[in-house]
Design a protein that fits this description.
Layout (H helix, E strand, L loop, with lengths): L15 H30 L5 H15 L1 H9 L6 H19 L9 H24 L6 H7 L3 H21 L2 H4 L3 H31 L1 H11 L1
């Protein structure tokens, strides 16, 4: 009986493109797993104020590397929608470069730790899924997590991101540039439609990959 989560990712041979995607996704999964492990360990041992000491620079580098996601979507390396991919990557870059870097005092908050925990958990699942998908080796539990974990993780991540932006707006934003508070207001306003678009996109993907139609297709493959 075929694995119900597989979408024939291994057909067509294992060429340079698949080798690249396996390496890219595996390396990204390891990087985010490192972030998740550091956040969890430091939170338990010392508290949120110590989290940025051990993870901030590495998290910023890892998230910046995710601009490759936009390039992949733009060039068709992966069948990902360019608009939603660019939205998510851009919002995260704002957090690591436009909030965490200029306002380090904000990174000692619980919101910063919960944001990184939500991001890293999501990405460990996602990148592991896509690495294994290239070789038709995705177990069903990981397939289910890929299209279900966001139901909990996305609200946590979004609320943490908004809280970080609001804290910057209410605190040190005007010390950076006179126009920065108003720019953050625009960001908050953009979060309203942006978060709805991204969440609805994931709900659509969940119905497509876990809904009745998908189960029916898997049932036909089994016979």
């Amino acid at each position: 009986m075929p694995n119900p989560s597989v979408k024939s990712g291994g057909r067509g041979g294992f060429g340079p493109k698949k080798a690249y995607l396996v390496l890219y996704n595996a390396a990204s999964a390891i990087a985010w797993a490192t972030i998740l492990g550091r956040v969890a360990m430091v939170l338990q041992m010392r508290g949120p104020e110590f989290v940025p000491i051990v993870v901030d620079k590495f998290a910023r580098t890892t998230q910046t590397f995710a601009v490759m996601e936009i390039l992949h979507a733009l060039t068709g390396v992966v069948p990902a929608p360019f608009f939603t991919t660019a939205m998510q990557v851009a919002s995260r870059l704002l957090l690591v470069w436009g909030i965490a870097l200029p306002f380090p005092a904000l990174t000692g908050s619980t919101w910063y730790s919960s944001m990184l925990a939500a991001w890293s958990t999501t990405e460990v699942i996602r990148y592991t899924y896509f690495a294994l998908k290239q070789v038709d080796a995705v177990p069903y539990w990981l397939h289910w997590l890929r299209y279900s974990a966001f139901l909990v993780l996305y609200p946590i991540g979004i609320s943490s991101e908004v809280a970080m932006v609001l804290r910057a707006f209410a605190g040190p934003a005007d010390q950076l540039f006179d126009w920065y508070p108003m720019a953050l207001v625009a960001v908050i306003v953009a979060y309203v439609p942006g978060s709805v678009i991204l969440y609805n996109h994931m709900l659509t993907q969940r119905r497509k990959n876990l809904g009745p139609a998908r189960k029916a297709a898997n049932g036909k493959k089994a016979h």
